[in-house]
């Protein structure tokens, strides 16, 4: 976030950013994978961390994505308030987000998530109980389907720029779902430049008119660097 602080001091950038939640602040995928390995099997014999590194999302795991019972379980958990209460925090997230506000003077203006809006109150409670800064939770409206979540988020970001100067998010697909290139600063969390899939998305984003800068941040301490 050093680049944001430099631009802020120069007077040409707002002070506020958005934060994604799942796989950015909460290790949702890891928690789900731990449960699903017990319920639906783990033919590859992968640890939870290795499975997460390989597939990122539960719906990408081959043994589960074609299993109707596993798909039903995932659909139910997406709107289950009780499940959200138990999600673990990603290492360094609380400390680094608070440093962001206290030392870099870059305010967290909103938590922007594709979780359904019915989970917004419980999500706000989870954030507060873990020590994250207070800010509104903006979640996916009831009339927007799960598959359209990234497009909805891209639209929100486009409308809020430049009031929001950027977002920290683990999903590179958000960059491609807007009508044009996202003009703000996109901090792609939990990925590395060496990942072929992430690199392909970044190349597409950078070719879009008006596309802003993307910074790949594998961990929270590196995001602050």
Could you characterize what this model shows?
- This protein is of the alpha/beta class and 225 residues long.
- Strands 3-2-1-4-5-6 form a six-stranded parallel sheet, with helices on both faces.
- The radius of gyration is 17 Å and the shape is globular.
- 43% of the residues lie in helices and 15% in strands.
- Helix 2 crosses helix 3 (48-55).
- It contains eleven helices and six strands.
- The longest helix has 13 residues, at 28-40.
- The helix-strand sequence is HEHHHHHHEHEHEEHEH
Whole-number mean pLDDT: 90
Q: How would you classify the helix and strand content by structural class?
A: alpha/beta
Number of helices: 11
Helix content: 40-55%
Strand count, sense and barrel status of the largest sheet are: 6 strands, parallel
Fraction in beta strands:
5-15%
Number of DSSP E strands: 6
Measured distance between first and last alpha carbons:
7 Å
Shape: globular
Strand ordering within the main sheet: 3-2-1-4-5-6
Summarize the structure.
This protein has helices spanning 2-9, 28-40, 48-55, 62-65, 68-77, 81-85, 93-102, 120-130, 149-160, 196-206, 220-224, and strands at 16-19, 107-116, 137-140, 164-169, 185-189, 214-217. It is an alpha/beta fold.
What structural keywords apply?
6-stranded parallel beta sheet, 225 residues, single chain, alpha/beta, 11 helices
Furnish the topology, listing elements before pairings.
Layout: H1 2-9, E1 16-19, H2 28-40, H3 48-55, H4 62-65, H5 68-77, H6 81-85, H7 93-102, E2 107-116, H8 120-130, E3 137-140, H9 149-160, E4 164-169, E5 185-189, H10 196-206, E6 214-217, H11 220-224
Parallel strand pairs: 1-2, 1-4, 2-3, 4-5, 5-6
Helix pairs in contact: 2-3
């Amino acid at each position: 976030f050093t680049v944001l602080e430099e631009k802020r001091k120069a007077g040409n950038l707002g002070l506020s950013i958005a934060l994604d939640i799942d796989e950015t602040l909460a290790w949702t995928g890891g928690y789900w994978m731990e449960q699903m390995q017990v319920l639906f099997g783990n033919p590859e014999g992968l640890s939870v961390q290795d499975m997460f590194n390989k597939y990122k999302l539960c719906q990408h795991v081959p043994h589960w994505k074609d299993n109707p019972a596993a798909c039903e379980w995932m659909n139910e958990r997406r709107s289950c308030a009780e499940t959200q209460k138990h999600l673990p925090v990603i290492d360094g997230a609380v400390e680094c987000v608070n440093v962001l506000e206290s030392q870099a003077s870059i305010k967290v203006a909103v938590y922007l998530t594709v979780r359904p809006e019915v989970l917004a109150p419980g999500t706000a409670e989870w954030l507060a109980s873990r020590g994250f800064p207070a800010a509104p939770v903006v979640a996916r409206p009831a009339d927007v389907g799960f598959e359209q979540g990234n497009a909805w988020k891209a639209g929100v970001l486009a409308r809020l720029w430049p009031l929001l100067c950027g977002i920290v998010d683990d999903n590179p697909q958000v960059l491609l779902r807007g009508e044009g290139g996202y003009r703000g600063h996109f901090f792609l969390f939990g990925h590395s430049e060496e990942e072929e899939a992430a690199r392909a998305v970044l190349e597409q984003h950078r070719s879009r008119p008006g596309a802003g800068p993307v910074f790949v941040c594998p961990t929270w301490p590196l995001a602050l660097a």
